[in-house]
Specification:
By secondary structure, the protein is mainly beta. 7% of the residues lie in helices and 53% in strands.
Length: 452
């Protein structure tokens, strides 16, 4: 009997040790030891409290900035000591949002060099004044070698951080934090790609961007910039969720798009480990990704001085959205005019006047913009949309920013479950004199029609 008891005690001790390891690498992840292992930067204990949430939750960190900028972060974790420079890591936290009245909240990490200089902030989850309050939920981030967020060169240490910011300093909010778990991770998609891929394809140069989870991020034609390459002027697909905000592409202020798979082909051949630059006759980027219950299969093909884009949308369950934007293209703000043709052949013409308005807003068969300084324009031809689903083409007329193209769907709608919804366009740049651009756009559009 004594031997059996010792054996059971050994098993219990081993299991307890395994459970303790599973708690992660942070010394005080659940705030059971107060603020030990955590520091204010900036802020002080008057802006936070260790509260008893009761039940299984126990002690939690209660953040309430009360009109000030506030940051709470871990002690610095050094590479080569607390962390392995050649490993990937996952960090998760339980958060409860009781409301953001002013400012923004971020769950993020900072990377520092050996001198303590901040190299980069990597955001994992954000809240703003439009974010609906929510009960406890676990949010996740990843970083390190092979992950979606490789550490910048020269990183010597990092910290995990929860913070509030408002430009005048007036942060008004309340967010509770618990169970901050940091552990080694095996990324679902190994990140052995460069941070970007730039391809010269005929007269086109395009750039694919990793920070927006592999979307287009530049369109140049004959050496002229037609579509901005400027962080914040996003391409791709984004969904606006009620009470949450935008999620997808470079919109990481609320949640990240999750890349499930990706593949690159150059001149018809698969590339396992892409180079940062190519000069080729064709390049194809394929990606499968997920945003909450929405799944996307995206294909971008660049060849013959044209860019084909396809998105197949499918929902795991009926999903309410305020809208979905596909095929975002931030055309240069020096573009002055647009032209569109409707399915019935009617034409709509307009000018960009820095109005800050959404223009056109019609289901255009094709549309085009013209940029006089470069003597260039581009036609966007809609090849396929799901039958029976309303949609429209828009241009957002923003001064000193862009003339941004959208294909908008599901306005105050519900994406049905388990139904594949296919959207396809082709974009064709052209060169023309100001007085001839509409004629040239019409000719180009005629070459895009199916069967042409």
């Amino acid at each position: 009997m004594r031997v059996l008891l010792l054996f059971l005690l050994a098993i219990t001790t081993t299991a307890a040790g395994a459970a303790e390891k599973e708690a992660g690498l942070l010394p005080n992840p659940g705030f059971d030891e107060g603020m030990s292992g955590w520091v204010f930067r900036p802020g002080d204990p008057s802006l936070a409290a260790i509260a008893d949430a009761g039940g299984e939750r126990g002690k939690v960190l209660d953040l309430h900035p009360e009109g000030k900028i506030l940051g709470v972060e871990t002690d610095r974790l050094e590479l080569g000591k607390a962390l392995d420079a050649d490993a990937a890591y996952e960090v998760t936290a339980l958060l409860k949002n009781e409301g953001i009245q002013s400012g923004v909240f971020a769950f993020s990490m900072y990377c520092y060099d050996a001198a303590g200089k901040a190299l980069r902030q990597i955001a994992f989850y954000g809240l703003n004044t439009k974010s609906a309050p929510h009960d406890w939920k676990r949010v996740r981030g990843e970083f390190g070698k092979g992950s979606a967020n490789p550490l910048p060169e020269g990183t010597a240490s990092i910290c995990i951080r929860f913070s509030f910011y408002e430009k005048s300093g007036n942060c008004q909010a309340k967010v509770l934090v618990d169970d901050v778990i940091l552990k080694k991770d095996q990324p679902a998609v190994k990140n052995d790609w460069p941070a970007e891929v730039v391809a010269d394809v005929g007269d086109l140069q395009v750039r694919f961007e990793s920070r927006s989870f592999w979307t287009l991020y530049r369109i140049d034609y004959q050496g002229t910039r037609l579509c901005h390459d400027r962080w914040g002027s996003h391409y791709g697909t984004v969904a606006l969720f009620p009470g949450v905000g935008f999620i997808g592409s470079g919109h990481t202020e609320n949640e990240d798009e999750e890349v499930l798979s990706r593949a690159l082909e150059v001149d018809g051949k698969p590339v396992a480990r892409p180079e940062a630059t190519y000069r080729c006759s064709q390049i194809v980027l394929r990606k499968e990704s997920k945003v909450r219950t929405l799944r996307y299969k995206t294909t971008i093909t660049v060849a013959d001085n044209r860019i084909w884009e396809e998105v197949i949308l499918k929902a795991d369950e009926p999903t309410k959205v305020d809208l979905i934007y596909h095929f975002m293209h931030p055309w240069t703000y020096t573009a002055t005019e647009y032209l569109a043709e409707m399915p019935d052949g009617a034409r709509i013409e307009g000018t960009f006047t820095d109005s800050k308005k959404l223009l056109l807003d019609k289901p255009a068969k094709w549309s085009a913009i013209y940029d006089p300084p470069g003597g260039k324009g581009a036609v966007t031809y809609v090849l396929e949309v799901p039958e029976g689903q309303p949609w429209s083409t828009l241009y957002w007329d923003q001064p000193e920013r862009y003339r941004k193209h959208y294909l908008r769907t599901f306005v105050k709608g519900t994406v049905p479950a388990n139904e594949e919804l296919r959207y396809r366009i082709v974009t064709v740049p052209f060169a023309a004199a100001l007085e001839k651009w509409k004629d040239e756009a019409t000719k180009v559009a005629a070459t895009c029609a199916p069967g042409s």
